[in-house]
Amino acid sequence: MIETKGLRKSYPSGKRGRTVVDAVRGIDLDVRAREIFGFLGPNGAGKTTTLRMLATLIRPDGGEARIAGADLLADPAGVRRRIGYVAQGGGTTDAVTAREELVLQARMYGTGKAEALRQAEDALKAFDLTEFADRPCRTYSGGQRRRVDIALGVIHTPQVLFLDEPTVGLDPVGRSQVWAEIQRLRTEGMTVVVTTHYLEEADALCDRVAIVDHGQVVAEGTPEALKREISGDVVLLGIAAGENEPAADALRDQPWLLRLEQQGEDGLRVYVHDGAAAIPQLLRILDGARIVPRTVQLQRPSLDDVFLARTGRSIEQS
Ligand SMILES: Nc1ncnc2c1ncn2[C@@H]1O[C@H](COP(=O)(O)OP(=O)(O)OP(=O)(O)O)[C@@H](O)[C@H]1O
Ligand SMILES: [Mg+2]
User: Fold this and answer.
1) What does pTM read for this prediction?
2) How far is the CA of 240 from the centre of ligand 2 (A)?
3) 24 lines ligand 1 (CB under 6 A)
4) Is the pLDDT assigned to residue 187 strictly greater than 90?
């Protein structure tokens, strides 16, 4: 449904734009039809820039892409007809009601007035917005407003929907409502590309993900497959500030240790084959070094561990 090769974009930067930021440095993606595809990465990784290129809002400096059969560079109007795009932060106006926004959006796609009213009514029902459809958007909760944003993005029934950080800033209820809408759209046949910082949400709800860093894809696949590459478990040790170094030194040479990462100032992530078996040994070794951990947690690897393994940094700590 989406295929990109070597997509690139640089922005002028610095005083008088003399230097450049290479925001996207050659991105290859392959998104299948009816997939929920997660586009993950830390701040400034190039997610929004990539989405804006695919949505024809900015022109790539290089590379190519086909979206639902239309060529991004040769046929941007064709791409625009086939896609919906919901920007980071959304696009509703405080004083306007959801119904008015939807009618306006439908009319922008050239729909006649009566038909636009009907489409708006359908969208209000589908997204469960009827109850407050005639109140101004500023009175909505964060989750309600995001649902209006998504409804606006799909009023013309596109084949592909791009959502930039649709759940950012929402409470857990709002977030699960937004994901429920995303899943509903997929069952109706839409392909959804979604960016998020919330790796646990992406893990649970995306069919496949691409993890980007500094404008390049560092990992791609199903969450399960990516996590499987990180063999074993993670033991998360909470340690008094200042004792990270001595604890790491004590553990470093153990044969069963796969990898060791600092977690902030007062924590260590210890990667081992069998976490339950390693914990008693860990405690014994730390005890020998006169270190008593404050907390010990056994975790399965997360998508953040995948990122950590590929880049040496954490998305969630950034
Ligand atoms: N219009 C612009 N002019 C100059 N630099 C820009 C512009 N837009 C983005 N950048 C830079 O390009 C890089 C990628 O930005 P982008 O917004 O694509 O990242 P992102 O992955 O969406 O980040 P976030 O998670 O914070 O939304 C950043 O270094 C950013 O500062
Ligand atoms: Mg962004």
Assistant:
1) 0.87
2) 35
3) no
4) yes
